[in-house]
């Protein structure tokens, strides 16, 4: 059987609960498709801080780098909220992304027909939304230098960051996005602020040039302020969106909320080679941690993305996706997506129901 | 009578049509409150480009600076879309803001009860939304240096911008926002990305310090990605939002679209002293220009903001605001906000109806 090493990073809050379900589902779907795994669980975030004093221990990083894929739960919690920046759980995420060089963050936002009423958008606007935000994840203002604090000529404190893109950083995310758009509906919208920012002007120029290599994909450009409006006005006009790190942070979250159920949404972060990083888009939800109330669907769907994009195990991935739909159709729901007439269950039981459907 | 010099900048597309209505309404409301105006009309945007070769002629700038307030229509159009950056109509906006030093951009987003169904959000979510985004307008990444293009050590092209804030820039916008929040419901939410950006960390530190001077205002902080979600999930949780230039660009447009009718929304840009700049948030709509189809409400409401915030003529402002509500109640609508059972009229006739209600 094909065998893969998977690093599991449960993290904080509800992380361990949802990772535990996703691991079981991965195992089952894998065994049915002749896949074996070597799971290695490591510390990250607050859990790592408490145990080792740092949010991203070297041991965790090297395990992640040596594996075939990384599945992460969630990091963060009240306990560490007032830590200094380099001792915040979230810092581990930025470090992991940068070290794994996963420059392409895939954030699907699909409205499940069974959950369309969870959206705050009108049914006719939300129904059928199925879009993919491709966010540049290892460049731009998140990592640009110079950055920091200083004193200006008037003796005043200043804080500054640098939004910067080099041609190859734009090119590789553009190629990733065109390839994804090609497999979807063939429509790609590149979002920037090229009417103001030079970094965006270069972005637009490179994306436009690369479009020549994808004549089957229809490329359009939109300013970020307009995109934030259009996502609300008519989200169905979009298929694949590609944008920089900070705009992608904002727009992918906006797009998620259109679905109304962020407990359902997975993500994948991919590099040119090496392990990808897969995680639900929701946070660690410390308020419900340890109470068996967490929704494991997003992490289970992240495991499906891990199989599909990380290991190219399409069949096992498809099994998981189908199992999620089937479980929804059979009416099982956690509290966050519950509505009258459906069956309210805990995280564990939902996991068992998903397994029945795999 | 009190007398004011007003610079009118009709600009491009539907700009002249909506400015013409707003001017008449200003005149009437003013005359009923003992106000006289000296109107000076000047060129800006594409109109200025065609006539003088530049989008913001010196003559326009000096007229604006010497007046008591500036009312702008809209700039831009297909014709100039492919111009170089410094010859784009939109550049005039950035120049005008910087030269007038209008650092505080007030962007109300209120759902009119008469138009609640225009929102793509469910009625119960949209109904009663009444929020104010206070956007920093003359700093941050829009104007930060260094900026531009260069070649890196690998011989690759790079594009870069600087997000930078000095203490006094944050302080003055924070004071403006606290004062506005105090006059509204007393709740202020400051939006930043302080978990990643140093410029945001300074932002949060200064806003928190200034909060001491406004014990009657309840301050909260939110990350920009979360804010973009919360605006869709539950916009009524917000009253006043304060944020930087680029986040404000994105979030104020998102907030506008929640109302469903951007043809209704005004804006005000204010400095420490000197004339304020007042304009509708919509663009020049070249597709309907010159057809008497434009919705003048947003510009008329911008004229009300001009009276209220620019000239401290509360009574005349109130007259205009009431007239808008009355005209809506009497059922008059332009095409963009038309629905069955209301009366479809053109820009000019809507202006006449507003005048009847002043
Ligand atoms: C926690 C934070 C640093 C992170 C980001 O901004 O990238 C998060 O918002 C995300 O989108 O994964
Ligand atoms: C036209 C553009 C430069 C401008 C901006 O980004 O500030 C516009 O989007 C706005 O919000 O007024």
TrEMBL record, chains A, B:
<keyword id="KW-0560">Oxidoreductase</keyword>
<keyword id="KW-0464">Manganese</keyword>
<dbReference type="GO" id="GO:0003862">
    <property type="term" value="F:3-isopropylmalate dehydrogenase activity"/>
</dbReference>
<keyword id="KW-0479">Metal-binding</keyword>
<keyword id="KW-0028">Amino-acid biosynthesis</keyword>
<feature type="domain" description="Isopropylmalate dehydrogenase-like">
    <location>
        <begin position="5"/>
        <end position="354"/>
    </location>
</feature>
<comment type="function">
    <text>Catalyzes the oxidation of 3-carboxy-2-hydroxy-4-methylpentanoate (3-isopropylmalate) to 3-carboxy-4-methyl-2-oxopentanoate. The product decarboxylates to 4-methyl-2 oxopentanoate.</text>
</comment>
<comment type="similarity">
    <text>Belongs to the isocitrate and isopropylmalate dehydrogenases family.</text>
</comment>
<dbReference type="GO" id="GO:0051287">
    <property type="term" value="F:NAD binding"/>
</dbReference>
<comment type="pathway">
    <text>Amino-acid biosynthesis; L-leucine biosynthesis; L-leucine from 3-methyl-2-oxobutanoate: step 3/4.</text>
</comment>
<dbReference type="InterPro" id="IPR004429">
    <property type="entry name" value="Isopropylmalate_DH"/>
</dbReference>
<keyword id="KW-0520">NAD</keyword>
<dbReference type="Pfam" id="PF00180">
    <property type="entry name" value="Iso_dh"/>
</dbReference>
<dbReference type="InterPro" id="IPR019818">
    <property type="entry name" value="IsoCit/isopropylmalate_DH_CS"/>
</dbReference>
<dbReference type="InterPro" id="IPR024084">
    <property type="entry name" value="IsoPropMal-DH-like_dom"/>
</dbReference>
<keyword id="KW-0100">Branched-chain amino acid biosynthesis</keyword>
<protein>
    <recommendedName>
        <fullName>3-isopropylmalate dehydrogenase</fullName>
        <ecNumber>1.1.1.85</ecNumber>
    </recommendedName>
</protein>
<dbReference type="GO" id="GO:0000287">
    <property type="term" value="F:magnesium ion binding"/>
</dbReference>
<keyword id="KW-0460">Magnesium</keyword>
<keyword id="KW-0432">Leucine biosynthesis</keyword>
<comment type="subunit">
    <text>Homodimer.</text>
</comment>
<dbReference type="GO" id="GO:0009098">
    <property type="term" value="P:L-leucine biosynthetic process"/>
</dbReference>
